[in-house]
Design goal:
Elements lengths: L1 E4 L18 E4 L5 H11 L11 H11 L6 H15 L1 H16 L7 H26 L3 H25 L9 H16 L3 E2 L2 E2 H35 L4 H17 L5 H13 L6 H18 L3 H8 L6 H36 L7 H18 L8 H10 L5 E9 L2 E8 L8 H13 L3 E9 L4 E8 L3 E10 L7 E9 L2 E9 L3 H20 L4 H15 L6 E9 L4 E7 L4 E5 L2 E5 L16 E5 L5 E5 L1 H4 L8 H10 L7 H15 L8 E10 L7 E3 L2
Parallel strand pairs: 9-19
Antiparallel strand pairs: 1-2, 3-4, 5-6, 6-8, 7-8, 9-18, 10-11, 11-12, 12-13, 13-16, 14-15, 14-17, 17-18
Helix pairs in contact: 1-3, 1-7, 2-4, 2-5, 2-6, 3-4, 4-5, 5-6, 7-8, 8-9, 8-10, 8-11, 9-10, 10-11, 13-17, 14-18, 17-18
Length: 691
């Protein structure tokens, strides 16, 4: 909350006899005052001298681009401005539709759909306004005025929506866009004269000079033409249109020269008078000089932000090129992962029997259909983070900045036109990202090439923990049918997966290895866990006519929070050792390779620093075959083991005690995987296998 202090609040104790009292006004700091001011001005813009068609599309555009809560104050400003302009009773036909637009709730899934729906809502509001006006004063002119207002309102909506889109998310250059909207709204509202100069004409000169500074001739001519057309609707004479277009052309041509922005509007004013030099011409030229000077002194950092979102400017083209390049890199990486999935499938199915060829073809069709439905690049850019970085480093001379959402937060890739002397700039960007997201961020890569005057960097989340994993195993025969794999899913998520093939020996080893490797390739490629397990199940079913199955014991570890997401398909229970206490995570599903459909259920736990997750295969539990609740025996054994010892020794001790409990006989393959979190002290890798 910001405070506006009008008077002193307490008695001044230093001056006797003087008692000053205070009045304090608490003003909310998050109120979009620029949008309120724009509402006041737009609602006052009179088309053809008596129509007020700009307030309704403004509220509709606000609703299409943001939540209902953000419309309250701008809507109040619009209604007050209309009442001030035409009086209360004449404003009633406008106020009621505006209230309905402000309070209505319309759900839409996509932003493009929201834009169309709220345009229809605005047109409906104009129809309602016309009906109300006809009830109050039934004349043919009211009907014609309503149609005219609807047409002008639809055009205004088409212009307002791009300016307001992204305001709710505070997208790139949202502040500059707000002030541009305020100046455009003031140009529509003010038709008075100050010191013999039209305020609307002065603001038009200013906007044209600013457009020439942003995008040279094309943008200046576009701004001048638009202002000329708007001037005609707002009741300006034809000379205004000629002056706006002439000023735009000259300012756009001269904009790249020194003092060109100042001279362009003045020359346009002089030429529009046909060589006649009088007091009016001098005032017009002075207004052009002042407007051009005003546009010239706007801080460059504000214009750089604005230029990035305006088509036709060099900065916009650079931004789009950087987005395209980044998306190309991401798609290349994703498709590389897809290729490994198909290569793995081809390797897995090459030894299938000929008699099940039809089944294989059908299953492969199912696989391809599943992939086409489920695979998605999942790339979403965030202009908010990009805007924050550009504002935090106004003098950085960025060639490009791209921020995209990831499963961990967001990743920032940037490139500067020059290298920093101490190579610490990207570290400052990482610190800013840490403050923005509340997580620790670090520099992932640096690409500094002084000879090419280029400095590139990538910043991403830095995990709070690293993952320590140790394995102990014993095979019944020479080759174990148990397999395990640890692989990263993202910068801060690590997957640990165990698989136990049916039986023992080479066949069990091969089947569990196929399952675990295919599962890893698919999850890394971006497939949902349920889809990946379903595919593994189909592949195992069509690999052989014999009954084969494997278990899958998967846990995904979040290195920021310590959250564990378990997926157990026919697997043995897992255990979390918290000092002397042990929690058991049970299995819920049958192994894959038995039924045509697999139901996947997830379970979630939290692993804290110092606690240990122990994952085992069923060979460990079968060490006490005669017990009905074997997991309780393992739990009691873990309670007696010292959790503070080395992780490798802990895993080996669990295995040794299991073999001892079976009197030295290994009837089934045994595997123990111990997982522990350790706090990151330095910039080191998130996953480390200690052995």
């Amino acid at each position: 909350m910001g405070r506006l202090q009008l008077l002193s609040v307490e008695q001044n104790r230093r001056i006797r006899g003087l008692c000053l009292w205070t009045l304090q006004l608490a003003l909310p700091a998050d109120v979009p005052w620029a949008l309120v001011a724009a509402g006041l001005f737009l609602a006052n813009g009179a088309v053809f001298g008596e129509l007020l068609p700009l307030g309704i599309p403004y509220i509709a555009a606000l609703r299409a681009s943001g939540p209902r809560e953000g419309v309250a104050l701008p809507a109040a400003a619009v209604m007050l401005s209309i009442i001030w302009t035409v009086g209360f009773w004449a404003a009633v036909p406008y106020i009621i539709p505006i209230l309905v637009l402000s309070l209505a709730t319309i759900k839409s899934a996509r932003s493009g759909t929201a834009k169309q729906i709220w345009l229809l809502a605005a047109l409906t509001a104009f129809a309602g306004k016309t009906v109300l006006a006809l009830l109050m004063r039934p004349t043919v002119g009211i009907l014609l005025s309503g149609v005219t207002e609807a047409v002008v309102g639809a055009l205004a909506y088409a212009l307002l929506y791009p300016l307001l889109d992204g305001q709710a998310e505070r997208d790139l250059a949202y502040r500059e866009t707000q002030w541009l909207l305020v100046i455009l709204a003031a140009t529509a509202a003010f038709d008075g004269v100050l010191w013999g100069i039209s305020i609307r004409l002065f603001l038009s000169f200013f906007l044209i000079a600013g457009a020439a500074r942003l995008g040279a001739l094309p943008l200046a001519v576009l701004m001048g033409s638009g202002l000329g057309l708007a001037g005609l609707l707002l009741g300006e004479p034809g000379e205004y249109v000629v002056l706006a277009v002439l000023c735009a052309s000259l300012t756009g041509v001269l904009g790249g020269m020194k003092f060109g922005l100042i001279l362009g509007p003045a020359l346009g004013a002089l030429l529009s008078r046909g060589g006649l030099i009088d007091g009016a011409t001098v005032k017009l030229a002075a207004a052009g000089l002042a407007a051009g000077a005003g546009a010239s002194i706007i801080p460059a950092r504000y214009l750089r932000h604005l230029a990035r979102i305006i088509p036709g400017t060099p900065s916009f083209h650079q931004r789009q090129a950087s987005y395209t390049e980044r998306l190309r890199e991401i798609m290349s990486e994703r498709m590389s992962h897809q290729l490994t999935v198909f290569e793995e499938l081809a390797q897995t199915l090459k030894d299938c029997h000929e008699q099940i060829l039809a089944t294989q073809v059908q299953a492969m069709a199912d696989v391809i259909r599943t992939m086409s439905k489920e695979f998605s690049p999942g790339v979403r850019l965030t202009g908010n983070v990009e805007d924050q970085i550009l504002r935090a480093f106004p003098d950085a001379d960025f060639r490009s900045v791209t921020a995209l959402y990831t499963s961990d937060g967001f990743e920032v890739s940037g490139q500067r036109a020059r290298c920093c002397s101490d190579q610490k700039f990207c570290t400052e960007v990482a610190r800013l990202c840490s403050r923005l997201n509340g997580k620790q961020y670090a520099v992932i890569s640096r690409r500094c090439v002084p000879s090419r005057m280029m400095c590139g960097f990538t910043v991403g989340p830095s995990p709070k923990y690293l993952l320590q994993v140790e394995t102990a195993m014993r095979a019944r025969s020479g080759v174990s049918g148990d397999n395990e794999m640890v692989f990263p899913l993202s910068k801060s998520k690590i997957a640990v997966v165990l698989s136990d093939g049916m039986g023992v020996g080479a066949r069990a080893h091969m089947e569990s290895q196929v399952a675990i490797r295919l599962l890893q390739r698919m999850i890394t490629a971006g497939y949902n866990v349920e889809v990946a397990i379903s595919l593994v199940n189909k592949v195992l079913l069509l690999r052989s006519q014999d009954e084969i199955f494997v278990t899958i014991d998967l846990v995904v570890v979040d290195l920021h929070t310590g959250r564990l997401d378990f997926v157990k398909i026919g697997a043995a229970p897992s255990f979390i050792k918290r000092g002397r206490e042990v929690e058991i995570i049970h299995n819920q599903c049958l192994p894959v390779g038995i039924l045509s459909q697999v139901d996947v259920e997830t379970d979630r736990r939290i692993l804290k620093e110092g606690e240990v997750l122990i994952m085992v295969t069923d060979g460990v539990l079968e060490a006490r075959r005669h017990l009905e609740r074997k997991e309780e025996w393992v739990s009691r054994m873990l309670q007696r083991i010292d959790h503070s010892q080395d992780l490798k020794e802990l895993a080996q001790q669990v295995l040794s005690r299991s073999i001892a409990a079976a009197h030295g006989r290994v009837e089934d393959d045994m595997m123990v995987v111990a997982v522990k979190l350790a706090r990151v002290v330095e910039e080191i890798e998130a996953y480390r296998r200690i052995s």
